[in-house]
Each structure stands twice: as C-alpha cells, then as structure tokens.
Amino acid sequence: MEKNTEEIKGYFGQSVDYFEKRIDILGHKAAIIMCEDLTNITNLWQVNLRPLNSIKADFTPQQAYDYIMQETTIPFNAQPAQSFEKVLFFLTAGFAVILIDGVDKALIAPAQGYPSRGISAPEAEGSLRGTRESFCDTGRKNMALVRRRIRSDGLVIETMQLGTVTKTEISIYYHRDYCDETTLAKVKARLEKVNIPIVTESGYLAPFVDTTKHSVFSAVSYTEKPDVFCAKICEGKIGIIADGCPFALVYPFMFSEHFYTSDDYVQRPYFVSVTKLLRYIAFVVSVMLPGLYIALANFAPETLPEKLIFFIFSSKQSTPLPLFMEAIIIVITLEIIKEAGLRLPQAIGHTVSFVAALIIGDSAVNAGLIGSAVLIVCAVSTIMSFVVPSFYEAIIVLRIIFLLLSGVFGGVGFAFACLLMMLNIVNVNAAGKSYIPKITFSNRKQLTDIFLKSSWRTINRKG
User: Fold this and answer.
1) What is the DSSP pairing of strand 155-162 with strand 433-434?
2) Which of 75, 107, 262, 300 could disulfide-link 98, Cβ–Cβ 3.0 to 4.6 Å?
3) Looking at 11-148, which runs of residues are DSSP E strands?
4) Co-location of 245 and 279 in the same domain
5) What b-and-e string marks burial along 29-64, b requiring 16 or more CB atoms within 10 Å of the CB?
6) In this structure, is residue 239 part of a structural domain?
7) Do 74 and 52 contact (CB within 8 A), yes or no?
8) How do 18-25 and 28-35 pair as beta strands?
9) Are residues 244 and 304 in the same domain?
C-alpha cells in the first residue's frame, strides 16, 4: 500500500486537490485516495465507508478484499483497478480509490460529485414545439437523456478515451438494428488512430470522422437537442459526444438534412413544404445574390430593368468607391459586426449590433461613402444565411468566392463559381454514399423526402 500510494502521489505532484487519508478496513491498514471537488464525500461515507466499519470479522488482506467484493452489498465498481493507468482514470473521473495493504487491486467507489451545468433549454437550435431540453456538459447525464428517449435494446453506447493529455471520455452512440456495420467499423478505426494532446469537445474529432478533403461542406453535423440526436440514431447514423461538451456530432449527414428542422415533423405538411422550399431559396440567395448583383451591374447592365439601371448608376456616381469594392467592404464589415456581437457579453453584444446596423450603416449611406443598393443586397444576403444556420460557415466562404469571381470576371466568373460550388458538394464523402442524391422527377418519394413533406399517415401507409 505504501509503495502504491507513493507512486500515485507522484503522478499528481504538488496538486492541492489530491486527497489521501489512512484508514482501517476489517483490521487492515488501508488508504483512501480521491480528488477533492470531484468526489462527493457524503455519499462516499454513507454508501461505502460506513457499511465497511460495521463489519466485524478476522480476515487476511486478500480474504477481506474478496469478502467485500463478493459477500457484501456495498456498491463498489465490479471491475477493480489493477494498474496505475486505471487508477488515474477513475480518480480524474470523480471516483474514490481504496487501497488495502497486502492486496494488489484497488477498490473503486462510485461517489462522483463534480460540479456540472444542469439541463437547460437549447440556445443554438430554436423550435416552436418539442422538447425544451438540451445536452449538458456531463457525458453521463447526456447518456441518460438519450437512453430515456430510445428505450430499445438496440441502442448501444460505447466509450473510449481520446487526447493524450486530457484523456477525454468519448461516447459513441448507434442503433445496432439500423447502423451500417462497415461505416461503424471505419469510424471506430479512425477514432482509435486519433493522436492529439487535447480533446475538449466533439468538434475536435470531425476531421478524423469525416475524410472529405478540399470542400467547404462536410458530412458531419452538430446538434444540442437530444430529440434530434435520437431521431438521427434511429435513422442509422452514428453519434459522438465528448464529455464536457453539450454538442453532439452526427455522421453521416446528407446535404438535404440541413434544411430540416424538428418542427417539420409536427406541423402541417403543406406549411412544411412551403418553408422547406423557402430554406432552399434562402441558401441560394445568401450565397449568390451579392456576386450576381455585381456581375450584372458592372458587366451586363442591359439585362436589368431601366429604372433599376438608373438607380444603380446614380448610386455609383454618388460614392467614391467602385461597386465591387463597396460590396467587399460591406460583406467584411457585416461579418466583423456579427463576430463582435457573438463574442461580447450578451447585453453589450446586442448594443454593438444595434449601433453598427442603424447608426454606422445609415450614416455611411447619408455621407455618400457606400450606396444604398449594394448595402441592401449584402444585408439581405446576410439575413438569408441565418435561415440555414448549420451551413453558415460554408455560406460565408462561398459568398466571398462568388463576389470575387463575379467582380473580376463578370458572368463567366459567376458561372465558374457555380461550378466550383457544385464540385464542393459532390466531393463530400458521406460514408461512401452520395452527399446530394440524384434528383429525378419521376420518383415522387424522393421529391417528398427532399423538397416536400407528406403527412405521417401517408408515410406510414407507404412504409
């Protein structure tokens, strides 16, 4: 016991949260080791130590250990720790470790009591109906949220440690009746090869799970809603949650799924079909509108209505910068304002956004620094990008590409940007499946799944 405690203490050095105390168990010297603030001392005493003190018997150290594990109802972990690596894992996870002098195994007491954020309403994914619960920062609580919703024996949850320094517990979720075994094996193999020092959230693992290269799109997505996560698991997808992160990673995620919301499955199908089409339109407008406006206004003004041409011409004459430069400056400024409002505290962030949008924008137009037409176009494009928030990163990159190519090469550059976007989409490797399906108007079921929405009664009859 003395050698073991010295070895364990050497790993923690002079850490102030390391706690070690000598105790007596069944007449033998023992030591209890834990990390303060990670272990609930009250639970440890009432559930584990207090029942041990009431046992009166004469055992050898090994007999005492066997008696505790096999003859008592004290809830020690069924698998003891037989290596220092295991001991360190349990200590940093909030367990208490008990060493008995003369025994080469450690008793593991499940008495976790580390601080954690409670379950709250989702912040990044708004919905009108459905659950008001979101994932929290504790991996075990997230397991309970998923298990409570999928009460099937087919749900499998596996764990592994990743991060050579952080040794973060990663949970892998899948339904064995629906998940593709080949895809699951590939994902596990990729995760086992992860050799980075720090893993603090699920996003660290996305480049290893998704092997897509040279594309702004990705076959992984994130959600903080347990109901959405469970629905994807029941569709045969694989979920990954890192302990300490409230966002779950879902793989593979197809292009059309980014245009779905959880409300689509509880609202009237006619209304959902309209809103789905609006989301597709918003995605196209947010990416292409500034570039298309610059290409037409600079290189092909004859294609525009006469009144609009005079309006654009007067706006260009009243500002010192070319139309292309105005658009670049406005797009970059809007992104800076968005970042400032996002990173600052909430109260200050709203103030910054309000001041920037109303005062700076209005003053710049009145002073003749920028034209009102190009400001409206860029503002509409920015607002449209929030309709499909999971595509926001890709939209920003694509919008700038469209703007640059259209501003330099006109219609030819705009067409090349469209081709570049399509190549980015088809280049995504979604677990060997097509990221964007081949659309045929003869396939009514495909049109229903991608663009429209059928009622549950119709879907059930088809199934």
Assistant:
1) unpaired
2) 107
3) 18-25, 28-35, 96-100, 106-109
4) no
5) ebbbbbbeebbbeeebeebbbeebeebeeebebeeb
6) yes
7) yes
8) antiparallel
9) no
Question: Which of 425, 157, 149, 138 lies closest to 262, judged by CA?
Answer: 149
Residue 404, both tokens: 């640059």
Geometric angle at alpha carbon 443, from 438 and 448, rounded to 5°: 90
Output DSSP code: residue 89: H
pLDDT in tens, 65-105: 888 888 888 888 888 888 888 888 888 888 889 999 888 88
SS3 239: strand
Largest CA distance in the chain: 103
Range with the lowest mean pLDDT among 208-217, 411-420, 438-447?
A: 438-447
pTM, rounded to two decimals: 0.83
| Total count of residues recorded for the chain | 463
b/e 94-124 (16+ beta carbons within 10 angstroms → b): bbbbbbbeebebbbbbbbbbeeeeebeebee
Helix (H, G, I), strand (E, B) or coil at 370: coil
Q: Quick check: 180 and 190 in contact, CB under 8 A?
A: no
Q: Is residue 216 part of a domain?
A: yes
Tell me how far apart the alpha carbons of residues 150 and 398 are, in angstroms, rounded to a whole number. 38
Q: What is the Cα–Cα distance from 336 to 52, expressed in whole angstroms?
A: 62
Determine which helix (DSSP H) or strand (DSSP E) holds 305, and give its type and residue range. Answer: none
Task: Say how many domains are in the chain.
Answer: 3
Residue 93 is part of which domain span? 2-109
